[in-house]
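Researcher: Can you fold this with 5-O-phosphono-beta-D-ribofuranosylamine in place?
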Amino acid sequence: MKPETRELRLGVLGSGKGSNYLVIQQSIQAHRLDATVAVVVSDHSDSGILQHARNYNVPAIALPQSRFRTKLEPEIEQELVSILQRHQVDLVVLAGYMRVIKEPMLQAFHGRIVNIHPSLLPAFKGLEAWRQALTAGAQKTGCTVHYVTAGVDDGPILGQREVPILKDDTPETLHARIQQAEHVLYPEVLQSLTSKILPR
Ligand code: GRF
């Protein structure tokens, strides 16, 4: 018999300052997100996201250093799968994780990995999407939460939020405005997933 449903257990992966992780954690505390963060994993031992996790007494794990910039060695990705499984993660939440997810993760967490990207996908995939939007002379951009599949920034879209591009914008001001939108969108989409993704 299956046990009573429990809260969705999130495994958050990030490489940087962790502002999205922070709002996820704050949303949980404010009862706007019915989930729990089981573990936070980063590819940088000194990243802000790991520090935030420690402040919340959430297990904060640094993966071994990779030789590549955006790739993971297969054995490190396997280690990542083991960490997430050991912490009984139901949903993997990429929050500024700068490495491409491949087969071991995609298989182990099929349909259970989401990402936030700083553009209105399918426009401006890839790195520094805010800069791409500015260079292209777009009038608006935004952010997108999507399922992660084998294509980079390519899976089914779960939610989007628009952000205007102002005439004085620099890459920095635009990125900051997009991040404000991300901080609203990500917790909302994650909450909507709590009724769709069952705990394992
Ligand atoms: C966000 O802008 C997100 O869209 C991109 O990486 C950034 C992560 O920021 N994928 P933070 O570490 O959550 O502050």
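Model: Folded with 5-O-phosphono-beta-D-ribofuranosylamine in place. The chain has six helices and seven strands.
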